[in-house]
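From the pipeline queue, job 12 of 40. The input is one protein chain; the requested action is below.

Action: predict structure.
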Amino acid sequence: MKAAWFEAFGPADDVLHVGDLDTPTPCEGEVLVRLRASGVNPSDVKKRAGSFPNLLDDGLVIPNSDGAGVIEAVGDGVDKNRIGERVWVYQAQYARRLGTAAEYVAIDALRAPRLADEAGFDVGASLGIPAMTAHRCVFSDGDVAGQRILITGGAGRVGHYAIQWASQAGADVIASASNDEDATKCTSAGATHIVNHRDSDIATSILDATGGDPVDRIIDVEFGANLSTSLEVLRIGGTIATYSSTQQPTPELPFFQMMYKDITVRFVIVYAMPETAKQQAIADIDSALREGRLQHRIAATMPLAGIAAGNKLIEEGSIRGSVILNVD
């Protein structure tokens, strides 16, 4: 099969290779998916750069956790009626070496849910990390109807889905965006208020948008960099649900200030979500796709051979949506 892989950590152009590898065989409980699309996410890029030093201990890695395609074969214990089923794939390169940047992936049948007929393979390849992370950030602590929710980086991969999940569930959404185009995307997704996170006094801008009322929940793309603002605008007993802290990867926590406000900080990553939360996210994604309730931001599409270019787009931070590799 055609595949992309790396055997050393380093710059994308230097370490990513595209060529032929053996096609996998599905083991018990697995399905073999002929992939049509593979999604490149920031976590995939960080792994290739060396964020997990022991990742290559057992051999080469085919990157990317998200993808979409058609089941061509099944292992023992899997219903043969699933052959021919359109699916989207998540967690393909978590605690295992062989991800979706290839023509085929053999994976636990649970990690290949049915892809609604209303969605293309490109959409399917953008669901795993972005849409499931957003779902967990919004719903991990219960019903959000009537809540005020601040979503930072609302035009990003996760933020854009988070706005939709929250607004469709009845929350009043305040989203941050840094330019008019991103602000328009946030409004279109369901945000009621837009604030510019480059404002010199962003906390005042947020409270002006809410009429002076604190927010109930913050879904945060930059936990460390935004923490002081978050503590200003979050209500007593509120929650920060965060999935990234790139600018300040080792933030200092003002313990007493956070304790006196009885704040909950929830760290979110798809791989560690409880299985019940994963299955609820999958069910809600399926319903939303069938009903046409989700907007998707696919910023760039390229062939598998362009994987290095796709990695560099993610690293540059110049795009807001998903990078999809066509695996045809």
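Job complete. The chain has two domains: 2-126+296-326, 132-271.
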